[in-house]
């Protein structure tokens, strides 16, 4: 019966909403899964094996990569769900876990990027405090606070998502009387961090524009990181939050308006997940050490040199063993 329902659901993929769910979401989530899985496992491995001892920023980066990894591991379930015609067969617990993982990544990433903005602001504006801020303890404290805040922000959502052969997204499942929770989550979880990031990086850009060495590699890298983080907020997070709020507000609107807004909201959901791609770029732009470690891991000449050294060593050892004893 599950197979029959799946076939019937696929046959019903006729309007724009169903077409986007049947084809756009599985393809988009598949891309996020492949790139995110390989990229974040590689990044975590590089940080764990090649970039010790860690500074506070390194600890934040590792936690950001770990958050992204948890998110991409939920993608196969969503790919199966939407390919199956909105038919959820994995039970209520997995439904809540998958939706929880999506929002934990979303608001965890926002807070981790905000921490990086604040830390970089302190280092640039208050250079005398740079050594203290870069101590590991501050990274541990910041990440602990982020995990607690992100979990506190989205835990109420678990009581609002119902499971009845479907696993609807938050904006489609939230009861109408609780629409205020969506606005509160947007204000505290996104708008407030956006203001903090914007103010921090405006101050950083102004500070970096001073002095005779405005085109130094360090300052140029700081500008690139500034632009990248702002792009993540504007391209990935802003459309999703706007369209989510609009989707909730128009659930009782006329049919045409509701369909158009829902379609736009569906398109914005993978955009929010594409922040994992920008985060991978952030690791590379944040410092030369990560870039060198990455290149040393995958650069084929490095592997050939190591292999050649091992072969030569084996040949020398064999020659020594073949020399007859006198």
UniProtKB/TrEMBL annotation:
InterPro entries cross-referenced by the UniProt entry: GPCR_Rhodpsn, GPCR_Rhodpsn_7TM
Residues that span the membrane, as ranges: 27-48, 60-82, 102-125, 137-158, 178-204, 225-243, 263-285
GO cellular component: plasma membrane
Domain annotation G-protein coupled receptors family 1 profile: ranges: 39-283
GO molecular function terms listed in the Swiss-Prot or TrEMBL record: G protein-coupled receptor activity
Top-rank taxon, per record: Eukaryota
Matching PROSITE patterns: G_PROTEIN_RECEP_F1_2
Keyword Transmembrane applies: yes
Gene3D superfamilies: Rhodopsin 7-helix transmembrane proteins
Membrane topology term: Multi-pass membrane protein
Keywords per UniProt: Cell membrane, G-protein coupled receptor, Membrane, Receptor, Transducer, Transmembrane, Transmembrane helix
Keyword Ribosomal protein: no
Cellular compartment(s): Cell membrane
The name this protein goes by in its record: Oxoglutarate (alpha-ketoglutarate) receptor 1a, tandem duplicate 1
């Amino acid at each position: 019966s599950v197979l029959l329902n799946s076939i019937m659901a696929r046959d019903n993929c006729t309007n724009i909403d169903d077409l986007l769910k049947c084809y756009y979401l599985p393809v988009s989530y598949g891309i996020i899964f492949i790139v995110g899985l390989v990229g974040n496992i590689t990044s975590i491995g590089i940080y764990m094996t090649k970039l010790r001892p860690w500074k506070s920023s390194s600890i934040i980066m590792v936690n950001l990569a770990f958050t992204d990894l948890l998110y991409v591991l939920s993608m196969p379930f969503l790919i199966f769900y939407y390919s199956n015609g909105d038919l959820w067969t994995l039970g209520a617990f997995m439904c809540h876990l998958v939706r929880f993982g999506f929002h934990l990544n979303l608001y965890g990433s926002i807070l981790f990027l905000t921490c990086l903005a604040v830390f970089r602001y302190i280092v640039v504006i208050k250079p005398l405090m740079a050594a203290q801020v870069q101590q590991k303890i501050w990274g541990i404290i910041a990440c602990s606070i982020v995990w607690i805040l992100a979990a506190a922000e989205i835990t109420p959502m678990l009581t609002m998502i119902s499971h009845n052969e479907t696993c609807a997204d938050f904006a489609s499942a939230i009861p109408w009387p609780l629409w205020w929770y969506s606005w509160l989550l947007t204000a505290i979880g996104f708008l407030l961090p956006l203001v903090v990031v914007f103010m921090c990086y405006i101050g950083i850009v102004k500070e970096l524009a001073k002095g005779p060495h405005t085109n130094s590699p360090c300052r140029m890298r700081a500008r690139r990181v500034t632009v990248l983080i702002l792009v993540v907020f504007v391209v990935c997070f802003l459309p999703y939050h706007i369209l989510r709020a609009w989707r909730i507000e128009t659930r009782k609107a006329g049919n045409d308006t509701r369909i158009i807004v829902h379609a736009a909201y569906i398109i914005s959901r993978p955009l929010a997940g594409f922040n994992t791609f920008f985060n991978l770029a952030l690791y590379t732009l944040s410092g030369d050490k990560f870039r060198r470690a990455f290149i040393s891991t995958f650069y084929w000449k490095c592997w050939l040199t190591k292999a050649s050294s091992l072969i030569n060593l084996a040949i020398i050892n064999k020659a020594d063993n073949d020399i007859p004893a006198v």
